[in-house]
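Periplasmic binding protein: structure tokens wanted.
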Amino acid sequence: MAAIALAAAVAGCATGAGEADQRSSPGADGYPVTVQTRHGGVTVEESPSRVLALGFAAADEAVSLGVTPVAVAADPETLEAATPWLAEELAGIADPGLVSADGGPNLEAIASVEPDLILAQTYQVPDATTFERLNAIAPTVAPDSEALNVDWDARLRTTAQALRREEEAEELITGISAAFAEVGGRVPDIGSRTYQWVRADPGRYAFGNGSVLELFGLRPADNQDNTQTGDPLPLERTGELDADVLMVWAPTGEDRDRLAEDPLFQELPAVGASTVYYADLAFANALNSPAPIGLEWLRGELEPVVGQLS
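Answer:
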């Protein structure tokens, strides 16, 4: 259901690196529109034709809603490894120079694109000064939230409001939610099954936000820290990674080798049940910054693991 909706959206927006596609627009008469952000209301005066996305998640949202950005803050050399579900769509419009070395927006580079709408995430506009500078270039839209990780559906709705694609957004949310629930529904008593999502660092495991797994019907393990504000788990407490589904990202080859050789890790319930997902960069991106097209990819990756719970 969701895959069909997404396929239709992507097929309808394959415009390349030029002006954002306005075919099938719900109508420029929906403008002006004021979108609430954490820094106040932002008014988009007319239907945007030069949308700039500060990152792959914002680009995913725009593309899934039928609008191809003119530029995206992303490295074209790493698209296949980082966002394989969007690599083709972003190949001609990815520009790593839109953000500075510290990850903040490069105002001069952004201005040179001459956008008429900037799509951002909350962490990219952490203070009023950054927001005001971006908003002086073009209306800058980010979710009205203080959260580090804003829920994917809330982010999509914010982007959709700026693009006047609210109906399309609701269809995507309904379809994606139903597709995940269908997979989880094959598992008896799925609501009693737990998940954990961690990064394997030297000497410890750091929890990441795995709340997307709740779309399957899974629940977080008692120590699963989706807020990412708690202390990491030291190696001597590896046994506490006892969820039914364990997702672990070992960024380096050395980290991966350690997992294979660690008897504490190899004794975990999920290892014995074949319900461990060994993540890579793409998976980490899809889970940490979920958006419609990436979520469809993520569901496909996790469906066999969740299926092992049956």
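Residues 166-184 form the longest helix (19 residues). The chain is about 35% helix and 15% strand.

Cheers.
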